[in-house]
Amino acid sequence: MKKLRKFLTIGVMVLSIIAMSGLTVNTAKAAAQAGDLIKMDGLSSVYYLGSDGKRYVFPSESVYFSWYADFSGVVTIPASELQTYPLGSNVTMRPGTKLVKITTDPSVYAVTPNGVLRKIQSEADAIALYGSNWNKIIVDVADSFFTNYTVGSPLPSGTYPAGTLLKNADNASIYYFDGTNYRLIASESAFNANRFSFNNVVTTTMTLTASGSSITGAETFSAPSGGVGSPITGSGLSLALSSQTPMSTSIPKNGVRVPFTKVNLTAASDGNVSINSITVKRIGLSSYNDVDKVWAEYNGNVIASKKSMNSNDEAILVFSPALNIPAGQTLGIDLVASLTGTGTGNIGLAVASASAVSATAASVTGSFPINGNLMSLIAYDVAKLAMTGMNVATSTIKVGDEKVDMGRFELGFNTSGGTAAKDVRLSSITLKNNGVEDLSKTTMNLYLEHAGNKVTSRYTVDGRFVTFFFNEGFDLLKDDGSKLFYVKGDIISKENTGLNSFVLELNKSTDLVAYEKSTGFGVNTYTTNSSTVLADAHQISIRTIEAGNVSISKKSTSPSDTTIVKGTDNVVLIANIRADEQVVADGMKIWYGSDATTATTTNQFENVRVFLNGVLLDSFDPSVSTTTLLTADIDSSISLNKGDNEVRVMVKAKSNATATSAFYAKILGTDVFTGFNAEYVVSGNSVATIGGSATGATFTVQGAALTTVRNDGYGNNKPVVAGSTDISFGKFTVKATNDEVKITSVSFGGNIGSTTATLASAISDMKLYVDGVQVGNTVDFGSSGANFSSLNVNIAKDTTKSLEIKGTIDSSAVTDSYFATVMTINAQDSRGTVISSGNTAQTTQFQVKASGTLTVEVGGDSPVDGLLVSKAMDQEVAQIKLTAVNDVANLSEINISNDEGVDADPRIAAIKLYDGSTLIDQFVPVNGAGKFTIANNTIVVPANGSKTLSVRLSLNNIENDATATNKTFQLQVESVKFKSSAGAEQTVTLDGQGGNPAVLTASTFIIRKTIPTVTYQALPDTLLNAGDKVIAKFTVTADANADVTVGRFTLLTSKTASATLATTTNTLKVNGANKAATAALDSDDLTITLASPEIVAAGTTKTFEVIATVGVSGTGSESITAKIVEDTPFDSLTGALTTDLDGNFAWSDGASISAYTWANGYNVPGLDTQTWTLSKN
């Protein structure tokens, strides 16, 4: 078999799959069909015959087996026929099976349909998509075959590539992601028809929902396809200065990270563009010597290596890998620089011309030169950091070690040159590994630690570089001194045999990204607290992985400590044994116990099974020991593959295992193969050293448990009314823990009410509800209570059910008697064991009342006194709040009247009752009164709860009738009728007689044809100086129903001792034009009477300005104020406007065509106005 495997490996390296000796293929036949795997008789190469009549080559074994499970489908055809099929391209890796990379570039790609590669941008992204063992599905592609693929845009974080098979852990359904839809695979036959493999199904935490059409049979994507290998190119690339480019500002001449220019790069819509380099030019009154390094960043990440500025004022930034811009998209990059500290004047960065850009685009365009804003160089001592305290002596670490110390460094302040320490915020630090190991393959869970706490939120690995991102707001304070940091992580493998696995260094001093808190200026890092030497290539640590020849570690998929149910079978340990080369042994040893030092309860378990790479090695029943842990020898020949080998340990808890029994297993490198002759297959040498260990989770048997709590919130002595039905006597939450629980019956004990207990004969029709659904029969409550039997209510493990008990209190129940009971749940676990704890709960105590009462009052948000516009609909005039005490109140009738009499009747089209937005009833008043009739169960006020209803008026219009305006409405509630829960009708009469509630009235409203609204306006000039000045300015807006006529208004004025106020000739302007009017100043009242009343048309607004002659003397603070004050009480006048109308604002509503209908400023919106003020200073 070894020869066959070697033969296959050699065959695929010559670009074809060899049909292995011993595998059955069909005999030679003619006329192969499209989709066949074909070979020529006498030739071992296997091809795929495409629908285009071409034969496609499998370039490697891994590519072939990504499409096919074996060679059983290969068809042998005559040589003459084979020669008629021209060669096509190489077949690419099947999407959704493997990740690929080339040996000369650390970038890892997912393969999508048509051989398009999508780069996975970080290790964190890969772990999120494929789990911690994502690197195990990577296949290296030879450089010569990498051209078979097309490199597309990077894969966005959290997005699976097209072609991926996905499922959720709690659901057996499998979906095929086609890049847009998650297509459900309808059946196993459909799965097999497309030659899918369960090994390629990814279990994701993302909730999957089927979209698009289901897959019911073989589809075209199941056929192998070849990549076109086309380069990334498009017809054009355009450059433009971004609107987000930094503004001109002052910067320290020794700045270490200064963003100068932001440039937008846009690829034409007909193709992707790859940018290889951009030449950046310095501009401004400065020298190239003032620039230390220049680089490019995207979203804060360095994407082009840092370059020095040459004497031509240029720095060539090279993108490695090339910067790819998808067709039709724009990418903004920042041009960033560090400065030497010697410069003066100003400086900027630019892209001078199209020739400065090296890209695959056919043309490069833009408004060149693209200049960033100039920054002024200033002498400012930016804080400096010092990196000290490293331990660069070589030390060893082992595969399987967790949270191991991989290096340390101390950060403090550098005060050379008199630079003062300042508070600094740490953002990130990038360390370079110059060792022989690949960080992405040999480590996981990397982080920085300070004072025993993890201080980084995440990390990324890019080739030799690892970047740690500090927690938000992590500061290095000048008053705190230095801080010591440890680089820590888990060692999961050893890939190389050389020494110095990890040699960590700060490659560039600016790779520590930090900023002054007060200025935001970037700071630099030096080698000591007083040195002037930058911390470039500043070594932190040297570590060598010492795995021996074989290493043991626990896999990330191994379970955590948990509780289990007796009789269940569980995986307790998943370990990995990694071998440098193939190893064989006669067996292996595992340890097991119930706690750290003993195996006291392990005999409560049975059938321990040990699997290696999915194959059962051996099984045993555990023993017991009260003093030590125990071991078991697995007597079965073992063969470890080169690389990773999974060991899985399973155990079953006995069906009668006692609670708290525990079991765990572990494998120790020190003795796993002791006495089992472990040796390397090739050399035959014994395996001398095995590093690491793997300790499984502790599985503890716990019997099912119930927790029962009352959660209805009912208070003690909760009132219930005799004669009420379906009373809720209690609500309970029941939780099952450790196992599924089945409720078989629920009983409620006899009445335990205190003092006078309600007779059992008065309690009936008991009903039990589970999650709102009645279960069992309706039963009576006897002297011993009530019992609900023959139930079958299942509560899943760690879930809850809601139980509620309802019943009826007979009308014969004694007033002020009491009722309470204890609920007992009879239940069993999944294995039929009775649960006897946590299964009881008591109801609150209920107090029987003969009847409930209803209180009626004006609602808290009921409108206040005001004016109503005729013809308006549904104007709210009152809110009625009804509160039911002890029992529900099912409203049937509300009688109301107008407390102001019958005069308003002709004005009222309807009086309406609303519950929220729902119209309940309406009527037209007769003799100022009427009633609302409410259908049964339309408005039910809950016991000890409230309901607020709205009363609204719809009004008739006033048509040329002076006597129809100024009608008044004030709601009075006469009585309310309602039914109790027992159906008895009751009436609440509100007349204050014979113990009845007091008369209930709401606010008073005056009905007018229209309403004005007065709005304060700011004065055009508030300076008090001698002359005619505007002392008041306001607008009058007429309601849309009719015009408003303004006849007179009065300003209440005041002035200081040295200020004077007098009338003037042109005292009033309306809409900026003089309006004839007389002004009379009586003490502090300035009255403006219009010679002819001003009409404000319906729905429009006019502006009024009052002018007076003012004066001022003296040197103090002098002022004059004015405002219009609301009138009270209401006054009206029909006919000519005379002083018989008392008030500060006289207006007519146009109720009559032949006569004015004046009213004063009572309840006019906007009155009082704000105060107008003229002041001297």
TrEMBL record:
Keywords: Signal. Residues 1-30 form the signal peptide. This is Uncharacterized protein.
